[in-house]
Amino acid sequence: MIAEEKKVQQQQQTNCNELRSIPLRSNVFTERFFGSFNWEEFACGCGAAFVNIAITYPIYKMIFRQMLHGVPITSAFSQLRHEGLMFLYRGMLPPLAQKTISLSIMFGVFDGTRRYLVDDYRMNAYKAKIVAGITAGTVETALLPFERVQTLLADAKYHQYFENTQRAFRYVFVHHGFHELYRGIVPVLWRNGPSNALFFILREEASIRLPQRSSISTRAAQEFIAGAIIGASISTLFYPLNVIKVAMQSSMGHPAESMWTTTLKIYKERGNSIMYFYRGCGFNTARSFISWGIMNAAYENLKNLMTLDSL
């Protein structure tokens, strides 16, 4: 009888040990999901954004003035020239920080999420790209406070209130609360997710269908042109959402208006014409052409360098 009881206890102990050896489902998900991410994708995205912002920020500032005031490019250029060189790169730190982190997230989260969905769930490649693109865009929205402060620093009416990025962040947070930093989040969500998904789908299609170049210079030129055309086209398509976002973020302190209310307000203020939502779009398309061309070429070259170093 005693021998049987010992045998039962040993069997129970064995079963308990087996249960402990089985990893929790959440731990398996965490390990598999985050194990799909590659740090090189994050690093290449960050480096590509740094190169781009350093070159294109003055162009962005002219576009911003056109978005905000609805003026032609000559008037926007005249405003910046009148303010002087000291203010030309004013507000550059937020987009530099935001873009380096944002593009790092964009490439890194997209690649990791897509790989996880395809490898673990055998999801269709195009569906995986769409889900991964929207996921990356949604995660990027966490960086909206950088865009918020950038809008305030680039607007001439706030020059006397904010001397630098740090003071702008502090003022908005202390006087208006954390939620004020996320004013304009709805148009950003509508912009980020779909535009990311569309970018990666078109980018990979171009990579597959375009001829493979053996020369480094011709390959870089092809990467620049492919990224430039895709980026400029998507930027133009989603341009009205940026106009709505800037309009929502250019005010501070009072209750935020909804995206639809702001859209109707802009429509009425600008002559009841949808075309005015595209004021500044031509220059924005040119900037996006240069910007996305630089980022795509820089990303691919950084990735090739890291691949060579790992061999």
UniProtKB/TrEMBL annotation:
A GO term for molecular function: NAD transmembrane transporter activity
Top-rank taxon, per record: Eukaryota
Keywords of the record: Membrane, Mitochondrion, Mitochondrion inner membrane, Repeat, Transmembrane, Transmembrane helix, Transport
Solcar repeats: 36-116, 124-209, 218-305
Short name of any one Pfam family annotated for the protein: Mito_carr
InterPro entries recorded: MCP_dom_sf, MCP_transmembrane, Mito_NAD+_Carrier
Compartments where located: Mitochondrion inner membrane
Bilayer disposition of the protein: Multi-pass membrane protein
Main subcellular localisation: mitochondrion
Descriptive protein name: Solute carrier family 25 member 51
Species name: Glossina fuscipes
Gene name of this polypeptide: LOC119638105
